[in-house]
């Protein structure tokens, strides 16, 4: 029987030509996508750099920290000077909703920790002791004079407590905005411990892959506004997003997270805050079930939130004999974004109280102990 040419099997050479064409086509698409991603990143990064010029000035830290310059943004005039320290992963512009009002009555300085915002990377690992050394060098090199009121959010609380311990004559008051507690990880339910462990591992993976993801525009394409809310200014979120899309920022945040336990151990030796005026703002907004981390029950979150407000944050309030706690019932952890007005009023209250120090000063005791406790 004769075989029709149309039904004859394809020769190996013909299959190879088809396969090669498909492979070359896919390779061409991949090259086009890569070039497009690189162009996308460069164009939009240049646009953002023009849209968001440096807020502040770069200050070299001197011979002890060769090659390290930190961005310092000081506005207003007066004394004591308010110094603002952000939470983990947030650049100095995270205080943009707070700083202008404080500057209307005294001097106020926000700064980018090493690796963040417009600052250069700093020595690793990123622990609170290291951060405090750099902050002191920054204020000295910039010619900023104390006394200071130290204001911190989240992880920044470790830094300002250690700063107060090392330079007690320079600090006359503090505001702790839902700041981390050195023992918090001991009390996390198992489900939240697992979430934190996974988050740390993911951050380390992101740290390794981020330079490539950034170069090819993938990081920018996948970026989301974690604080997306009608209550937060959209332009501020875009500015923060631009500053976070930097390999040095991911490296710094990952190192701070990886060394959180070391920083906690460091702050345990910092002692109490004596009789300095202190206000602790504690996030008290009920947990939204829609925002629960995967694998964490609503009960676990509610129980830990109650313990956070009624125990850990009270311990921070009790660091000073003049401590005061304010529970912010309509804000989650990011109080500087959701209720900047309350941060502003707390700073003003501490500022006013610092003008009239008490007649006697209680010497520092073990961190977390009740004032006057034996």
Q: How does this model look, in words?
A:
Helix 6 packs antiparallel against helix 9. By secondary structure, the protein is of the alpha/beta class. The protein is globular. The chain folds into 2 domains: 15-51; 57-354, Alpha/Beta hydrolase fold, catalytic domain (Rossmann fold, 3-Layer(aba) Sandwich), CATH 3.40.50.1820. The longest helix is centred in the N-terminal third of the chain and has 40 residues, at 12-51. The model is unreliable at 361-374 (pLDDT under 50). It has helices at residues 12-51, 99-102, 128-142, 156-166, 184-187, 190-215, 218-222, 234-244, 247-258, 260-268, 298-317, 335-338, 340-354, and strands at residues 57-60, 69-75, 81-85, 108-111, 148-153, 171-177, 278-283, 323-328. 47% of the residues lie in helices and 12% in strands. It has an 8-stranded mixed sheet with strand order 1-2-4-3-5-6-7-8, sandwiched between helices.
What layout of secondary structure does this protein have?
Blueprint: H1 12-51, E1 57-60, E2 69-75, E3 81-85, H2 99-102, E4 108-111, H3 128-142, E5 148-153, H4 156-166, E6 171-177, H5 184-187, H6 190-215, H7 218-222, H8 234-244, H9 247-258, H10 260-268, E7 278-283, H11 298-317, E8 323-328, H12 335-338, H13 340-354
Parallel strand pairs: 3-4, 3-5, 5-6, 6-7, 7-8
Antiparallel strand pairs: 1-2, 2-4
Helix pairs in contact: 3-4, 4-10, 6-9
What keywords describe this structure?
374 residues; Rossmann fold; single chain; eight-stranded mixed beta sheet; 12% strand; 2 domains
């Amino acid at each position: 029987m004769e075989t029709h040419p149309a039904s004859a099997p394809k020769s190996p050479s013909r299959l190879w030509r088809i396969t090669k064409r498909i492979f070359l086509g896919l390779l061409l698409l991949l090259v086009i996508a890569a070039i497009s991603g690189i162009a996308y990143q460069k164009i939009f990064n240049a646009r953002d750099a023009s849209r968001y010029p440096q807020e502040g000035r770069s200050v070299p830290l001197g011979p002890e920290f060769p090659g390290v310059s930190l961005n310092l943004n000081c506005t207003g005039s007066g004394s004591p000077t308010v110094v603002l320290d952000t939470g983990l992963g947030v650049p100095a512009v995270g205080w943009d909703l707070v700083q202008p009002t404080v500057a209307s009555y005294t001097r106020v300085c926000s700064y980018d920790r090493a690796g963040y915002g417009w600052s250069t990377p700093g020595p690793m690992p990123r622990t609170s002791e290291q951060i405090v050394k750099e902050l002191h060098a920054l204020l000295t090199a910039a010619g900023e004079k104390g006394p200071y009121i130290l204001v911190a959010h989240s992880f920044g609380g470790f830094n300002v407590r250690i700063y107060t311990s090392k330079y007690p004559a320079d600090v006359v008051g503090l505001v702790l905005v839902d700041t981390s507690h050195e023992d918090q990880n001991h009390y996390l339910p198992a489900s939240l411990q697992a979430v934190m462990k996974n988050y740390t591992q993911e951050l380390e993976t992101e740290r390794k892959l981020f330079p490539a993801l950034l170069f090819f525009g993938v990081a920018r394409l996948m970026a989301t506004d974690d604080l997306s809310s009608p209550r937060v200014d959209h332009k501020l979120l875009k500015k923060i997003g631009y500053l976070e899309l930097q390999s040095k920022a991911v490296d710094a945040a990952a190192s701070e997270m990886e060394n959180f336990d070391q920083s906690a151990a460091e702050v345990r030796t910092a002692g109490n805050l004596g009789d300095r005026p202190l206000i602790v703002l504690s996030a008290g907004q009920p947990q939204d079930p829609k925002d629960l981390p995967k694998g964490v029950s609503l009960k676990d979150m509610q129980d830990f939130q109650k313990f956070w407000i009624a125990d850990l944050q009270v311990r921070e309030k009790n660091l000073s004999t003049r401590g005061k706690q304010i529970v912010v019932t309509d804000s989650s952890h990011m109080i500087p974004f959701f209720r900047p007005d309350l941060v502003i009023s707390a700073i003003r209250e501490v500022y006013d109280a610092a003008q009239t120090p008490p007649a006697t000063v209680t010497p520092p005791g073990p961190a977390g102990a009740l004032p006057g406790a034996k």
